Backbone:
């Protein structure tokens, strides 16, 4: 499926990939099966985004709250992340997809950290699309960390209080240099942000889809882009 020419394309789409576990359970399968199938949806969305001319595509891959799941599920998710990176890196690099990972790396295993560093290094030259993976990500932690970094600079005299602008704070987030998301999609039927991009999504168009993530493919992503194109963004003004 192709987007019609002339369609308004978002520069940045962020996705909360939700519903893997319920999707698997509905088929009597383990939750990890749903996570594995979800990889196909990631692949499909990357393809569509690249063809449509989306500049940035962010996936909420693992939240800091997800550590609260059973150890077996956490390790299945981490293993899938490493396997996906190993399997997909050469093709992503070939297609000019740059991979960037945001979130706190401290709590990740050496193996996961090494995989993350490898995919960032090996795809660094990509200029067709930037895919951002949020791994061990929490928006509140990100904002708190930014405040700490600004406070540290203020203490050394590097930054006066009047220089603590919205831009200065944005520049200390993991997403520094990445435009704010224009479209934020959550699959799986829940209508909440679950600690994802709270600062960056201030003016994002929100789209909540009832479709479980493993069923969210090319068609559903194209429909989401078409829905975005129909939205009128006013940014507080009364016309555009
Ligand atoms: C999203 O699917 C994947 C992650 C949170 C890592 P879930 O695992 O949350 O699936 P549901 O919401 O329980 O169905
Ligand atoms: C959000 O999904 C986190 C990711 C998609 C990585 P959750 O399934 O963890 O969110 P809640 O628990 O329903 O809010
Ligand atoms: Mg969920």
Residues:
């Amino acid at each position: 499926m192709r987007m019609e020419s002339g369609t308004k394309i978002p520069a940045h789409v962020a996705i909360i990939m939700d519903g893997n576990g319920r999707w698997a359970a509905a088929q009597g399968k383990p939750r990890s099966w749903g996570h594995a199938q979800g990889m196909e949806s990631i692949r499909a969305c990357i393809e569509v985004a690249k063809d449509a001319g989306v500049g940035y595509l962010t996936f909420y891959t693992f939240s800091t709250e997800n550590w609260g799941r059973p150890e077996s599920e956490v390790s299945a998710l981490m293993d899938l992340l490493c396997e996906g990176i190993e399997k997909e890196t050469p093709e992503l690099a070939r297609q000019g997809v740059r991979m960037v990972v945001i979130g706190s790396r401290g709590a990740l295993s050496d193996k996961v950290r090494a995989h993350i560093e490898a995919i960032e290094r090996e795809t660094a030259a990509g200029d067709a699309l930037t895919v951002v993976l949020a791994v061990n990500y929490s928006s509140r932690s990100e904002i708190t960390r930014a405040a700490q970094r600004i406070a540290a600079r203020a203490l050394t005299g590097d930054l006066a209080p009047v220089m603590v602008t919205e831009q200065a704070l944005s520049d200390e987030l993991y997403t520094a240099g990445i435009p704010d998301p224009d479209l934020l999609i959550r699959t799986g039927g829940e209508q909440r942000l679950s600690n994802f991009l709270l600062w960056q999504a201030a003016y994002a168009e929100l789209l909540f889809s009832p479709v479980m993530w493993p069923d969210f493919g090319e068609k559903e992503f194209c429909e989401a882009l078409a829905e975005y194109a129909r939205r009128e963004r006013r940014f507080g003004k009364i016309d555009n």
